[in-house]
Amino acid sequence: MTLPLSYSPDVAEARAKGLPLVALESTIITHGMPFPQNVETARAVEAEIRAQGAVPATIAILDGTIHVGLTDAQLDQLGQAQDVMKLSRADLAVCLAQGRTGATTVAATMICAHLAGIAVFATGGIGGVHRGAEDSFDISADLQELSKTPVTVVAAGAKAILDLPKTLEVLETLGVPVIAVGQDELPAFWSRASGLKAPLRMDDPAAIAKSHRLRGALGLAGGQLVTNPIPVEAEIPRAEIMPVVEEALKAAAVQGITAKEVTPFLLSRLFDATEGRSLDANIALVLNNARLAAKIARELV
Ligand code: PSU
């Protein structure tokens, strides 16, 4: 059976010419940020990748077809669409079979990027082990995907709404390299500090590209998690964001929010509580990750 997969003209051309490509996810557009900042940010991120000499490929499922690279009109439509599925590994095939529209999380974006031969992917923050996972078993499928699919994912760490020590433990168990850039500490999305040392550190995009290739040569399944701290001027220091995170987590518990709804609920709650500062920080860190991902992608070609 042939897969319903379509490349945008830009991405098709880049593939034909062997230009460096950077994959981008779409859940951040539909479930991570409000309109119109979501679409503006998606465009700015694409521009940043182009400015660094690589080609962006935003990935989403539109009416039952995997799109690798979205046109301006498609991006605009997705940014305002209602009833968009949030797709992880488990949901991809069902979304395609039903001809529906879905946004790809980190896990689903990795799968589609790999299908398209794209080795590098920039996002905001990966999903991870949620607080209280010992009771809820809520662990993002992003972690498993990193151990299966050979894509280097550039993120600003895992979101501080998660249990970061447990997230690191699971990644270690799964054999996923967690590489900090420019500092020894694991960054925590809105803040540069997490209080946790990252297992690995590499500051040079060329070395990160080389270790990506060496994993392939070693026959190792899975990708790399590159954790790139938010720029100093954009960060919300840990002491400031953590009380807000605690409040949001309490509200989620009281309202009985579970599973896929948890992350979007907490993000929008933080947006209100910080009067938009959490969104400004989110935008700044995604742009920063796009820049680094483009540099790694250039080293890979
Ligand atoms: N990064 C952001 N905002 C987001 C996400 C990442 O800046 O909304 C999304 C990603 O798609 C990631 C998902 O895969 O959050 C994690 O969701 P969950 O915790 O339900 O696995």
Automatic annotation (TrEMBL):
* Name of a matching Pfam family: Indigoidine_A
Q: Which gene encodes it?
A: psuG
**Which Gene3D superfamilies does the record cross-reference, listed alphabetically?**
Indigoidine synthase domain
What this protein is called in its record is Pseudouridine-5'-phosphate glycosidase
Q: Where does Mn(2+) bind?
A: 138
Q: Which organism is this protein's natural source?
A: Pararhodobacter marinus
The annotated subunit structure for this chain is: Homotrimer.
Which reaction(s) does its UniProt entry say it catalyses?
Answer: D-ribose 5-phosphate + uracil = psi-UMP + H2O
| Organism ancestry | Bacteria, Pseudomonadati, Pseudomonadota, Alphaproteobacteria, Rhodobacterales
InterPro entries the record matches: Indigdn_synthA-like, PsuG
Which UniProt keyword terms apply here?
A: Glycosidase, Hydrolase, Lyase, Manganese, Metal-binding
Q: Does the keyword Nucleus apply?
A: no
